[in-house]
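Why predict the complex rather than its parts? Because the way molecules touch one another can change local conformation, and only a joint prediction can capture that. The input here totals 671 residues.
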Amino acid sequence: MNRHLPSTLFDKVWDRHVVHARPDGYQLLYVDRHLMHDGSAEGFARLRTRGLSVRRPDLSLATPDHFNSTSGSSIDAIADPHKRSLVERLKDNASRESVAYFFLGEDSQGIAHVVGPEQGFTLPGTTLVCGDSHTATHGALGALAFGIGSSEVSHVLATQTLWQRKPKALRVSVDGVLAPGIYAKDMILRIIAELSASGGVGHVIEYAGSTIRSLSIESRLTVCNMSIEAGARAGMIAPDDITFNYLINKPRSPKELAWDRALRFWITLRSDDDAVFSKSLSLDAASIKPMITWGISPEDCLSTDQNIPDPESMCSTAERQACERALAYMGLQPGQPINSVKVDRVFIGSCTNSRIEDLRVAASIAQGRKVSIPAWVVPGSGLVKRQAEAEGLDKVFLEAGFEWRHPGCSMCVGMNGDIGSRGERIVSTSNRNFIGRQGPGVRTHLASPATAVATAVLGRIASVDQLEVS
Amino acid sequence: MKAFVTLEAKAMPLDLANVDTDQIIPARFLGLPRPDQVDALFRDLRFGDNGEAVLTFPMNQTRFSGSKILVVGNNFGCGSSRENAVTTLLDNGFECIIAPSFGDIFYNNCLQNGVLPIVIQHQRVVRLFDLLTTGSNHHVWVDLENQSLKFPDGTTEHFDIDSFRKSCLLKGLDAIDLTLSYSEAIEDYEKNRFIELEWQV
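Output of the joint prediction:
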């Protein structure tokens, strides 16, 4: 590598992890951090079939999140014996291979992408992988983090490396000041609408600009989390004082002299001023409104004051057909104002929006109000739950009529049985509005926690400002 | 992993864009043993609300039964990293998938399982949709060594694939075996990593 060439944040992290570069462009990349969850059983099984053991258990961490119940925090709360055995298998696999794990009922347990940052397991300049596509989340701390399949999980367990082709770099810059009541979720939904669901394929996104710089770590995690919904493998934000203040004194972050050494390295992790990106997008923060999805892909997105699109206005036959299919599944009419749509249920949670800041925003709006439809709050981890309870947020939610549940992926993906019923319309703070994502025939609208609370109160899609009017 | 060299087989068109992995295999079937996932392929596209077969869905049409090649729209396999999306396709006989583009993780997962993902231009995929839906010949020929496809109308099409992935597929070579042969390089890297980044461990 020529050190004089201007390089991006992504280049700087990638290049120092190359173990071997083949002439055909494939590079063997070292993995600093491997997160596992209760869907990782297959990765362990493949390893065992081959008679191999975990190469670096000290660089691995496991926590159940997908299959555990959110109605209780013990293993016995999982009614389905098969799901219970998957959660137990994680514990068995981790203890046999000397991998550190957090178990149900412990404060440290939670959604892998909430747990990694809050434990200081995720660190700037590291490579981090997990058998889950929302691993991009961890890029908020300046890590290069991406999701892998179960074969690659076993590959990492066996070798602590992965074969990769270096992706291209895409920069998304957001500058200016967000209007009051506009959150990171609105920003990333708008970015996905601009890029499309496939606009980031083959790329790693770097989020930059004054608006991004001003975001808290929780908000940055929300932004990076949904990079995959634009097709990008990873999203990254250069670490800065906000990052360092977040990480200092986390259980697994470096301490004392090691912290000083780490900091000297971390401050070098930013794109050079003249670094070249293969694609770029710029947005004015002031133009971002409360956003919500209307269709079956996160790119099917509009602001809450807009109308449902009309397939007749689409340019191509393919676009028209895709729009008609989405409207048919979602049970919506062209031209209908999105904020007139009645909603059956609200879900606040997931690796996108279940952190303490999300719950504070949601509680501040729920305070003194009542929900008119069933609504759940599922905190992202035991630590988030405990912090929220210490601040009295649980009481605010309960008094407003929300259910206050135990940490897990829950209704984002429904693998633990937390699903809606056919035809039900759910406003959800999660990351995917795919057909059947929250249960067969369930209609999902993605939005911020603020919009989710306003919707829960009014029983129809609504942004917070409408709550004030009514 | 089974080697992929050539394939002459029936191809099934699925003219939809952004087919995500939740549509390929819905989440409620994850965690089940692999044999129990076979019938979950495209479950909610294949069957209606009351379990009735959706006749317009190509898997429910006898003319496409026994297909080993799947032809699909843009961004196929976007979404979750679940490798079951690939293994369930494979267990239903699909060994090759042709699309204008794929979700990145799904594409990698195909290569880990001996399934060949082929990217060709959108207009050529559209042409293939036309040939398969209107013609009586549904056969497509795939030659990985020569990176060539032959459509039912006899026209041929070149496709690109990384030489590394190509050679792994041709030999049915598992990446772990290959990587273990680089153990020395990994050990060297780890030694230097420890010196440079003492704080990381």
